[in-house]
Amino acid sequence: MHYRKLIVWDKAMETAREIYRLVPRLPKEETYGMRSQITRSVVSIPANIAEGWTRESSKDKAHFLAIAQGSLAETETLLTLCEDLGWFPVSETATLRNLLDEVSRMLTVLRRKARHKG
User: Fold this and answer.
1) To 5 degrees, how large is the angle CA 44–CA 49–CA 55?
2) Neighbour tally for 50: CB within 10 Å
3) CB of 62 within 8 A of CB of 112?
4) How confident is the model over 44-95, as pLDDT tens digits?
5) What is the DSSP code (8-state) at residue 89?
6) Residue 39's closest CA among 2, 80, 71?
7) Which domains are delineated in the chain?
8) Coil vs helix vs strand at 93
């Protein structure tokens, strides 16, 4: 199956779109700070899912899925900081939080399956 048919990849892409929808609210002075960091971390999630899915060995798949999960944790942390600093209203990040939780659960299952195949 192609990675673009994976629900987890699709949800990760949706997560990235949500972040890109929010980042224009960041202060201009954060263009090369928070904006750069949070967009790089969120893009890394679907990118590593895709890269891992194309690998032949289960060990490699699990490795890239682990990187995706780490990028997800980084994105969650940066999102929390943006909320704490008042840059992103918590009322507008609920959908994003739900997506991050869903992608995290899916990645956990896929990583477990990949590790047990190898």
Assistant:
1) 125
2) 18
3) no
4) 999 999 999 999 899 999 999 999 999 999 999 999 999 999 999 999 999 9
5) -
6) 71
7) 3-117 (1.20.1440.60)
8) coil
